[in-house]
Amino acid sequence: MRCYFNLVSSHHTITDEEGLEVADVDEARSFAHQAAAEMIQDGIAEIARWRGWEVEARNASGTVLFTAGFDAVLTAEARKAEAQAAAEASTNEHGTYAYNKAA
Fold first, then answer.
1. Where are the domains positioned within the chain?
2. pTM of this prediction?
């Protein structure tokens, strides 16, 4: 089925004109989460700018299949990025923890 992923806030809508073929709603939901995560990783989505936005998935006839708050994805990705940065900072090039490393 063809699914369209609009970005919606209380004042604006960014409409997906192309859409994407997905097998079912579960695949559409997974894609929406991955797309938001990639935007964050690539630096396209800054947390402060996207608070309050939702991904709205619609089928070809325009029926809303689901909405997913961007805040939840942003918060989860921010926590993941912070944890990864902390882990990288606490290990040295040999993969051992650098407990005695001077700041």
1. 2-89
2. 0.65
